[in-house]
Amino acid sequence: QVQLVESGGGLVQAGGSLRLSCVAAVRFFVIATMGWYRQAPGKQRELVAAIRGDGDTNYADSVKGRFTISRDNAKNTVYLQMNSLRPEDTAIYYCNADAGRDIGTYWGQGTQVTVSS
User: Fold this and answer.
1) Cα 102 from Cα 48, distance rounded (Å)
2) Given the DSSP bridges, would you call strands 91-98 and 105-107 parallel, antiparallel or unpaired?
3) Average of pLDDT values for 3-24?
4) Which of 50, 63, 83, 87 is the most exposed place for a label (fewest CB within 10 A)?
């Protein structure tokens, strides 16, 4: 059974930082594109950042220069370092593992991030 477990969410003041972690109990971690998505109340889930197995990354325009995604293949873990947080970053953040059509795409349960003004 595929399991993604996020941690690191919480309440922080605007301008502060948080680091999210996602441990993926999956054998295909090294080949999977790992991503962080977020969903705010009343809004659709959106991609925040993603990192491919070769380390290539992409970010939503709204977080470029503030967030950094990284991965540690030895620990089956992906991280999202979030700096200069804004109230509009408030959302539930979800970890995603995309290993392609043959293996599938999997989601974590989400972790709440709340940024107060």
Assistant:
1) 24
2) antiparallel
3) 96
4) 87
Q: What is the reported pLDDT for 43?
A: 96
How does pLDDT run across 43-97, given as a tens digit for each residue? 999 999 999 999 999 999 999 999 999 999 999 999 999 999 999 999 999 999 9
Look up residue 92 and give its two tokens.
Answer: 């539930």
CA angle, 106 then 10 then 63, to 5° = 65
Question: What DSSP string describes 32-100?
Answer: SEEEEEEE-TTS--EEEEEE-TTS-EEE-GGGTTTEEEEEEGGGTEEEEEE-S--GGG-EEEEEEEE--
**Cβ–Cβ under 8 Å, residues 112 and 9:** yes
